[in-house]
Write a structure and sequence with these properties.
The complex is a heterotrimer. Chain A is an all-alpha fold. Chain A contains 14 helices and no strands. The radius of gyration of chain C is 24 Å and the shape is flat. Classes of the chains: A mainly alpha, B alpha/beta, C mainly alpha. Chains in contact: A-B, A-C, B-C.
Chain lengths: 286, 432, 322
């Protein structure tokens, strides 16, 4: 801005700028991962070290006891992860199967009042879970679905469908119309065009939708608490079980948490590039 | 009962004539539930260990439990849930009229859920009932009928660090409020605090309001008059709160205001950075566990210091109840009698640290040796320990606890807090 | 290329777009029929699962529904639940807390998320590992996250105090959750920490879509760094910002786990947010009608704020460009 800065800047500017960026990245990394470092540390420390002041984090105290106990004693964790996996996978798959055509139709197929429909779909996400818990419970109970994975899949579907539709609809709006016209000229029907032309070029946003729906279903707590008993218990409930009325076994709880996020992280790593591109294509087009 | 409630709920909806109403009308037709299995099975809803859990769920009395099931040709199925989530799941199931449990754990919730449970406790064998403290039935009695049986004598008593006492030259536990205040002040040194407790959560058993109820009774006060109207806005009520405020100033861990569960406070005592606290009998065992405690062999216990009216405590009220939809109430009663049998009670005490409720087992030399605090709790039980449980317990303790917290933060005087709380409680009672 | 309307608005363009005069009317009708066929299953699922609960919750809010002494008391009372709320101090406090929380969260998450995205889009910040790191806080189960923070913030043995003290930033251990305002602010920061990853990813994706050529043109016009940000980056991110703000508003009004685990609404109701109050009234006080009324207030707030933000951030309704 000033003349001084202009002259100095010519030499120092880029260098200073880079230094600033590196410092800022450092700050951001610390902000992001410091709590995670503590998450992992507390999972390998005995309770005594954790209630010491300051906490004793030296490697001398490190132990895998918490993991051994959690894996050994809690068959519940394995069962919970299996349940979560089944529920999250099915929810994600069905959400995609129903959401993709709906998103395409809302983007392209002259559905009447599509503005209002999309706003309505967004609005279903605005009512807090607590408000619908008891009525929903009644419905699920009437169908005899309490403590089934099916109940969770159905309920989670209703929360993930709107998100999936949002992401995918934005993407479909951005596909050049020419592609579909060409297909139409070649005599392909709407369904065929969607299946053969639109879906194959939509892999990135589909990936984004998958990660979204999967993480949300994997971690959902409140409905899992109310709608399951023993059989369909999911991972968040297993983790919550380490916090009791009189005692919280913190280290074990954190060990369980670390184990439980592994699959999600794996999914995130596998699809990290797709996610970014997926968001870009999906939510920002339009 | 279950069907009545469901019906009420759905009929009400139908009457509103809304679109959704047609839906549930349709559901009613589909509501045929799977037929119940012919063999006798009992569904028991209980907290996960280490909170008070039944034999076979917690690690004690497994063999006896298996034998009992065989002898009665019954299968007992446990549904276990972390304690903090019990009430939510129960409320949802009861409110929607779809509970399928036969035996349910309760903690101060008996009046709330009174129509969903039955007054079975009078049918327990007289020999069992005679061996239980009469006042333990207080929180499970409604309209003169006994709806539950408390299975562990869980009263707040005083726990303290004997090493800190020695350093400060204190020979015996505090006996009076004055002692307690003086001790708190003297023990607050070297980065330690004289007193620690969890004051962040207002409501429920173990909430701030319930702690104040100990002091209230020690000061000679009570919550309700003969007609159920609140009478705690009294000299005793104010004195009780003033006592808590004094302790706060004299040497309570300031973190106490932010601890939202007793284990936050317990950890501070176990780490040796606080000298005294009120806690439940369960705490004795973890305090002797080298994995969690730095004060092994340094934990002392005593009854709560006496106020103007003597010592007093509150009841943790961990109880078994039988639901109104129970498939086999007679068998359920037998199961609870089994839970209360001397052998199971003894294993419960020795293996889990949860004290028995049977006076005879509390006096058992082996139990007394393993759990030295058993005799202290038994002594505490000779003094009042009313938790003043009513059907609005959560709402009332929420209101009182919030006013107490403001006073503890110095935002209002004890007198103001009591006046505000009393006004709110009057409103709550009037509205229900 | 598509227009740059928001997702919500874009429906208008979609209708206008695909068919020109060259395509026959029957073709258009067929597309519409197929379209309805495509949308219906999703709408039916949403209606089947959420329709009854949502209508029921609206109705419940107009009734006195209370599970007291084991009875389900049900009585039609019209707007009384709502008028009662206005007279209820804890509701008013929760409303104020929620407004503070929601505004704070939207502002902080958007700005930190934007900053993070700019950094990760910088040539020095483009490591895959950074992006994975970015996702992790989002992947932790909310329950575990809340307990983790409860221990970090513990006033006596929490690691935050230990770290800050060893760095000389504080003299005494601080009771982070001991005073209403401080506790609320801390809850806000924790939730910001948890929410930034998704929003940052969103912005990062948005940044990558801004054509490089716009920056080059700006440089040629003599724009400095700030001007490039102001006149190229921000307009390019407008849609992303709208979506972030709307979603974050909805989510911030639904925060529950953190309050439940860290403070239980204490001390002195200082951290009671509307959604926690709705929970407390419904499940602890078993006053189901009143709880539904609070939930509906949250719904109305989310809805109005969403529409308001969309209007503010998308001031002009542009015509479809293709």
């Amino acid at each position: 801005m000033s003349a001084l800065r202009g002259r100095l800047g010519a030499r120092l500017g880029p260098w200073l700028c880079d230094a600033g960026v590196i410092v800022a990245i450092g700050v951001f990394v610390v902000w992001s991962i410091a709590p995670l470092v503590w998450l992992v540390l507390s999972s390998i420390l005995p309770q005594l070290s954790l209630i010491a002041r300051p906490p004793q984090i030296s490697p001398v105290h490190w132990t895998l006891d918490n993991y051994v106990t959690v894996i050994g004693s809690a068959a519940a964790l394995g069962q919970g992860m299996l349940n979560s996996f089944i529920v999250a996978s099915f929810t994600t798959a069905v959400a995609l199967a129903l959401g993709a055509p709906a998103a395409y139709a809302l983007a392209r197929l002259s559905v009447p009042r599509s503005d209002a429909v999309v706003l309505l779909i967004l609005a279903t996400q605005m009512l807090p879970a607590i408000a619908i818990a008891i009525p929903l419970f009644i419905v699920i109970a009437r169908f005899g679905l309490i403590d089934t994975r099916l109940a969770l899949i159905i309920v989670y579907l209703s929360f993930n469908l709107p998100i999936v539709i949002w992401i995918l609809r934005g993407f479909f709006l951005g596909i050049p119309v020419g592609l579909e016209r060409a297909a139409a000229v070649d005599g392909a029907g709407v369904i065929r065009t969607f299946w053969m032309i639109v879906l194959p070029i939509s892999v990135p946003p589909l990936c984004a939708a998958v990660v979204f729906a999967f993480i949300e279903s994997w971690n959902e707590f409140f409905f899992a608490l109310i709608l399951t008993r023993q059989n369909a218990e999911t991972v968040p409930l297993v983790i919550a079980a380490f916090a009791g009325q009189y005692q919280t076994v913190f280290g074990q709880m954190m060990a369980a948490a670390v184990i439980s996020i592994a699959p999600v992280i794996l999914l995130a790593i596998l699809s990290r590039n797709h996610i970014v591109r997926g968001f870009a294509e999906g939510m920002l087009k339009g | 009962m279950r069907d009545d409630i469901t019906h009420l709920f759905s009929r009400r909806t139908l009457l509103q004539g809304a679109a959704g109403a047609a839906a549930i009308g349709g559901f009613s037709g589909l509501a045929s539930r799977p037929a119940r299995a012919a063999e006798t099975a009992l569904d028991v809803f209980a907290p996960l260990p280490p909170d008070p859990s039944p034999p076979g769920a917690a690690k004690f009395g497994e063999a006896a439990f298996a034998a009992w099931q065989q002898a009665h040709d019954a299968k007992v199925k446990y549904e276990l849930l972390a304690w903090p989530q019990l009430h939510d799941r129960m409320a949802t199931a009861f409110a929607s009229g779809t509970s399928e449990w036969d035996v349910v754990y309760m903690c101060a919730w008996v009046p709330e859920f009174i129509d969903f449970i039955v007054p079975y406790a009078d049918k327990l064998p007289p020999s069992t009932v005679a061996d239980m403290p009469v006042s333990s039935f207080k929180t499970v009695t409604w309209d003169g009928k006994r709806y539950g049986a408390v299975f562990t004598l869980s009263l707040l008593t005083l726990f303290y660090n004997t090493e800190h006492f020695e350093i400060a030259g204190l020979k015996e536990p505090p006996k009076t409020w004055d002692d307690l205040k003086r001790y708190t002040k003297e023990l607050t040194r070297d980065g330690r605090y004289g007193w620690v407790l969890d004051y962040a959560d207002s409501a429920g058993i173990g909430g701030t309001a319930s702690y104040w109820m100990c002091f209230l009774q020690q000061a000679g006060g009570t919550m309700y008059g003969p007609d159920g109207e609140p009478v705690f806005n009294s000299d005793a009520g104010v004195a009780a709160l003033q006592m808590m405020m004094d302790l706060m100033k004299l040497g309570t861990d300031p973190g106490s205001m932010s601890y939202a569960g007793i284990n936050d406070a317990t950890n501070v005592l176990l780490a040796g950075r606080a000298s005294m606290m009120m806690n439940w009998p369960y705490m004795w065992k973890p305090a002797q566990d080298p994995k969690q405690s730095k004060i092994i062999g340094k934990l002392g216990g005593a009854i709560l210091p006496a106020g103007p009216a003597g010592s007093a405590s509150i009841d943790g009220t961990d109880a078994w109840t039988v639901t109104a939809t129970c498939k086999d109430p007679a068998l359920a009663t037998k199961l609870i009698d089994f839970y209360l049998s001397p052998e199971v009670q003894k294993r419960q005490a020795l293996d889990t640290g949860w004290l028995p409720i049977r006076i005879s087992v509390l006096g058992d030399p082996e139990v007394q040796k393993a759990l030295p605090n058993a005799s202290i709790v038994l002594e505490q039980a000779k003094h009042p320990y009313n938790s003043f449980v009513t059907q609005n317990y959560n709402q009332i303790t929420q209101a009182i606890g919030t006013e107490i917290q403001k006073a503890l933060q110095g935002r209002q005087s004890a007198k103001q807090a009591m006046a505000n709380a009393s006004e709110q409680v009057t409103q709550i009672i009037k509205h229900s | 290329m598509g227009s740059s309307l928001t997702v919500v608005r874009a429906g208008a363009s979609a209708r206008a777009e695909p068919t020109g005069r060259s395509v026959s009317g029957t073709f258009e009708q067929r597309r519409r029929r197929v379209g309805i066929g495509f949308v219906l299953p999703a709408l039916l699922v949403l209606a089947a699962v959420l329709g009854f609960p949502i209508v029921q919750s609206l109705l419940l809010a107009m009734q006195h529904v209370r599970l007291a002494a084991g009875h389900m008391h049900v009585r039609w009372i019209g707007w009384e639940n709502y008028t009662d709320l206005l007279a209820d101090d804890s509701f008013v406090l929760a409303l104020a807390n929620s407004i503070f929380f929601s505004l704070g969260e939207v502002v902080l998450v958007t700005s930190i998320g934007l900053g993070a995205a700019l950094l990760l889009n910088h040539r020095l910040g483009r490591f895959g590992i950074l992006r994975v790191l970015l996702i992790v806080p989002w992947a932790i189960a909310p329950v575990a996250n809340a307990v983790l923070w409860k221990w970090i913030l513990n006033a006596n043995y929490g690691v935050l105090n230990a770290v800050l003290k060893s760095l000389g930033i504080i003299d005494h251990y601080v009771v982070w959750l001991g005073e209403p305002m401080r506790a609320l602010t801390l809850l806000l920061l924790v939730d910001v920490w948890k929410s930034v990853p998704f929003i940052a990813l969103l912005f990062l994706a948005g940044l990558q879509r801004i054509p490089r050529i716009l920056y080059r043109a700006a440089v040629l016009d003599g724009a400095n760094g700030w001007q490039r940000f102001r006149f190229v980056t921000l307009p390019g991110l407008r849609n992303a910002i709208t979506i972030a703000v709307v979603l974050q508003t909805i989510w911030s009004l639904r925060v529950f786990d953190l309050v439940f685990v860290l403070t239980r609404g204490g001390p002195a109701d200082g951290t009671v947010l509307l959604n926690f109050l709705a929970y407390r009234v419904t499940f602890n006080f078993l006053d189901i009608g009143s709880g539904a009324a609070i939930a509906n207030v949250i719904f109305a707030m989310s809805f109005l704020l969403a529409i308001l933000y969309i209007r503010l951030l998308q001031p002009t309704k542009r015509e479809p460009a293709s």
